[in-house]
């Protein structure tokens, strides 16, 4: 497998976590978003959107992080990223989509660049924008998570092992902390993050542990 991504990309981070959780080996190919390498023809042959990540396996090219995570779960079912119960599985998907579809896209690099270069937002306004949308999303997540964690007494959203939601949550927490969001104000989110932080799969996937973090 080859993973084409960027060390600080939330979507790439999600896939790194999932690959590590499943114990899958892969070659890492850095795509520097700040230098615009994602827009070059070489990368667009992998991902016509000019986005990361792209996962290549046996000549097959997969894009969009959530689709990649579900494909990995189907091809390598153990350990599972989604719970066995259809109801719990739907709830975990909803939590993951909250992050991947509603929080992260409106504070990713290309949106923030547009805010500043095309709409003239200042650095301060950019930070306010990010904090607003993360805060709004985390408020909802905390409420949803707390209601279920109190009942099931499990360290993770879907039970005793991390899965799809945690693959999405941890990169978002990393971004939140970069922009000064007080994640400690969300105790249930923080407890899940602490449980993840103790696991090698999450430690190895951290941005600062990627080859391109020093470039």
Automatic annotation (TrEMBL):
Pfam families: GST_N_3
InterPro entries the UniProt entry points to: Glutathione-S-Trfase_C-like, Glutathione-S-Trfase_C_sf, Glutathione_S-Trfase, Glutathione_S-Trfase_N, GST_Zeta, GST_Zeta_C, GST_Zeta_N, Thioredoxin-like_sf
GO molecular function: glutathione transferase activity; maleylacetoacetate isomerase activity
CDD domains assigned: GST_C_Zeta, GST_N_Zeta
Alphabetically ordered keywords of this record: Isomerase
GO CC terms in record: cytoplasm
Domain of life: Bacteria
GO terms of biological process kind: glutathione metabolic process; L-phenylalanine catabolic process
Location of the GST N-terminal domain: 1-80
Residue stretches making up the GST C-terminal domain: 85-215
Protein family according to the UniProt entry: Belongs to the GST superfamily. Zeta family.
Designated name of the protein: Maleylacetoacetate isomerase
């Amino acid at each position: 497998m080859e993973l084409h991504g960027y060390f600080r990309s939330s979507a790439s981070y999600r896939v790194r976590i999932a690959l590590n959780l499943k114990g899958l080996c892969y070659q890492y190919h850095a795509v520097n978003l700040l230098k615009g390498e994602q827009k070059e023809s070489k990368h667009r042959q992998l991902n016509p959107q000019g986005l990361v990540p792209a996962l290549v396996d046996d000549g097959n090219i997969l894009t969009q992080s959530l689709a990649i995570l579900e494909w990995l779960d189907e091809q390598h079912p153990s350990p599972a990223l989604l719970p066995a119960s259809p109801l719990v599985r739907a709830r975990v998907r909803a939590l993951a989509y909250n992050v991947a579809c509603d929080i992260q896209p409106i504070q990713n690099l290309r949106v923030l660049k547009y805010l500043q270069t095309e709409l003239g937002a200042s650095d301060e306004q950019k930070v306010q924008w990010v904090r607003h949308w993360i805060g709004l999303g985390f408020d909802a997540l905390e409420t949803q998570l707390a209601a279920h964690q109190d009942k099931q007494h499990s360290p993770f959203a879907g039970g005793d092992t991390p899965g799809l939601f945690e693959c999405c949550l941890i990169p978002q927490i990393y971004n939140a902390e970069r922009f000064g969001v007080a994640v400690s104000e969300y105790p249930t989110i923080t407890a899940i993050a602490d449980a993840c932080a103790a696991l090698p799969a999450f430690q190895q996937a951290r941005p600062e542990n990627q080859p391109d973090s020093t470039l």
